[in-house]
Structures are given as C-alpha cells and as structure tokens.
Amino acid sequence: MARYQPVAHLSARALLFPLALVLFEFATYIAHDMIQPGMLMVTQAFAVGPEWVSTSLTAYLMGGVVLQWLLGPLSDKYGRRPVMLAGILFFIAACLLMTWVHNIEQFVALRFIQGISLCFIGAVGYAAVQEAFDEALAVRMMALMANVALLAPLAGP
Predict the structure, then answer these.
(1) What is the 3-state secondary structure (H, E, C) of 99-119?
(2) Which residues contact 106 (CB under 8 A, 6 or more apart)?
(3) What domains are there in the chain, each with its CATH number?
C-alpha cells in the first residue's frame, strides 16, 4: 500500500477536498436549521401536537451520535473515501425519502437517519483532513471548517 506525504502547503487542488467536506457539513447542518422554523407547520400537516417539534430535534441529534463508534473503525478498514461517499449517499437518500413521508413517525425516523450523516463528518471527514494535511495546516483547516457549524444556523431560517 502506497504511503502519501501529508500536504504541507495549501494549493487550489489540495483545497478541493476540504471544500467538498465543508459543503457536505453545511448541507447536513442546514437540513436541520431549515426545518426547525417550519416544524409547527409540519405538526399541523400531520395533525399532531407541538410536542413532536422537540421529538424531531431529539431524533436528529440522536442520529448524530449513534454511529460514531462504528464509522471510525470502518473507515480504518475500508478507507476514508468509500465510507465518506457512502455517508453522502445515505444523506441524499434520507433527504429524498423525506418527500414521501405520510405520518409524523416516518418523518421523525427520517430525521434520525438524516442526523446519522453528522457521524460521517466527525468520525470520517475530520480524520481524513488530519491525515491529508500536515499537523499545523490540518489544525487551521479544521478550525475554518468548524465555523460552518456556527454559520449554518444563520443561513437556515
């Protein structure tokens, strides 16, 4: 197996991977932040009480922690790229399936599945950045990427 040297200087080509990861991270956060202001309309559409608003939030956050323990070892065994691409496809499928829900239980279940995509970012994406860039550049890169988590709620509503 070939060993690659971590990137020490940032070039346009080296910036593509972190940019793609930031876009995925932004999409996962915005998927949550865009639905929250409209959750009362969602509960009205499904003719359920407002207590389902907090249930939806809880399901999304629980999804965000449920697979952390598994994805790290999977990406160590099969590689970061295939596991990350599977996570992206998983998220896309969950978003597409959301358009066909018929009741609040299906909605909350898919919110949980959407939340699982957060696991891929933390367990696989940030580990890949640490491996791809030398230590100082990786720390700066992850600090910039973490700002997405702060900016997404501003763009959502």
Answers:
(1) HHCCCHHHHHHHHHHHHHHHH
(2) none
(3) 14-152 (1.20.1250.20)
Q: Is 46 exposed, middle or buried (0-12, 13-18, 19+ CB in 10 A)?
A: middle
Residues 6+ apart with CB under 8 A from 75: 83, 84, 123, 124, 127, 128
Contacts 24+ apart (CB under 8 A), 60-65: 60/32, 60/111, 60/112, 60/114, 60/115, 61/115, 62/112, 62/115, 63/111, 63/112, 63/113, 63/114, 63/115, 63/116, 63/117, 63/118, 63/119, 64/115, 64/116, 64/118, 64/119, 65/118, 65/119
| pTM over cut 0.70 | yes
Residue 78, CA distances (Å) to 7, 32, 82 in order: 22, 29, 7
> Which stretch of 1-5, 11-15, 102-106, 133-137 has the lowest confidence by average pLDDT?
1-5
Q: Which pLDDT tens digit goes with each residue over 60-109?
A: 999 999 999 999 999 999 999 999 999 999 999 999 999 999 999 999 99
